Amino acid sequence: MQDLAKAKYEELQSKFFKKGIKVAISSGICYGLYSAFLTLGMSRGVWADWFGPNSAALSAFVLTYVLGALGSAVNDTMGGILCLVESAAQGKLGDVARCVKTKPGIVMMLCGIIGGPISATAYVIGLQMAGPMVIPVTALCSAIGALLGYFIFKQELNLRMIIGIIICFIASAIIGGTSFNAIDSKVAFGCLIGFVSAFGWGIEGCVAGFGTSMIDNKIGVTIRQCTSGLVNMIVLIPILCVIAGNIGLAPQLLKEAYTTPAIVFFIVSGLFCELSYSLWYKGNAMCGAALGMTCNGAYSFWGPFFCWILMGVICKESGWMLSPVQWLAAVIMFVGIFLIAMNPLDLFKRKEN
Fold it and tell me: What's the predicted TM-score (pTM) here?
């Protein structure tokens, strides 16, 4: 009887683990869609004027850093609003308010600050400076999260999993590195900023998986998105405008960003961003930070892929085509994810049985 119960328990654990892998992979797909619609939004409406005809009226600092923070703020605010609407529809607004005061709620607020004003802003700035090339750089967050998960939460990180992670990183480098011969100082600096994003997301992914294991996943994401959007708007953007020498620029830019017709693209990007983080946190909690973040790290392919579909194929803009080498790298990445998820020898053992 004990053996039967143990076998049943192990079967349930295996199903739960495999479901966690699917959830984590889905988060990477949603993150790719978020990146594509965010890129589209920041090239339309008033954004097209800021980066185009009216760019001379704004300093290089404002164009790069303030508008980068602004794009991140608008996206996360839209995601936060959608989270609140969903929570209200499910009757969870009271739970959100109560959880904010708890330790897990504070953890999620911290994740919102690290992952939003710091990492997401660095990500948007990197996208502006280096284009899709910065996406694989930020995928290094899975390595940082895996190491933190190992040292802080004692999650498994054996040799096979480490090899799988290395394979994923090599694939990420191939995806973004086919144009390395065209790197200039701006692109190189954009990639360097991408490392800032990777480090912040590595911390967030590790800690958030712990936080959302104690509270409802949707409530955790709602706290995270609202914190990120508000801190971006109220704290980060005004500080950057002070550094730029014009504090009055902050309310002006915010007003124009929220009233431009391009806001519809930010609503869509905010939706996919909210879905991505929700699935990311849930996947990390179900299968561990190392595996969860590596599966999510497949956005290093999904990001350029959906940017190509949306910007290149649909909007007919040049410069978004994926090369055959990048497609091959995507296959290599999935091999790496499979290697982290399970021991290939187990397939042969099951056949023998």
Answer: 0.81
DSSP character at residue 184 = -
How far is 34 from 250, CA to CA, in rounded Å?
Answer: 25
| pLDDT tens-digit series, residues 13-22 | 667 777 888 8
> Taking CA 287 as the corner, what is the angle to CA 176 and CA 151, rounded to the nearest 5 degrees?
80
Residue 99 near residue 227, CB atoms below 8 Å: no
User: Do the beta carbons of residue 226 and residue 110 sit within 8 Å?
Assistant: no
Res 353 pLDDT > 50? no
Give dist(CA 145, CA 205) in Å, integer: 6
Contact between 76 and 43 under an 8 Å Cβ cutoff? The reply is no
Contacts of 340 (CB under 8 A, 6+ apart): 160, 161, 164, 165, 168, 290, 291, 294, 295
Report helix, strand or coil for 331: helix
Predicted confidence (pLDDT) per residue in 225-272, tens digit: 999 999 999 999 999 999 999 989 999 999 999 999 999 999 999 999
Tokens at residue 313, please?
């194929």
At how many degrees (to 10) do helices 263-287 and 217-231 cross? Answer: 130
**Dist. CA 174–CA 202, nearest whole Å:** 21
For residue 288, give the DSSP letter.
-
What pLDDT score does 74 carry? 95
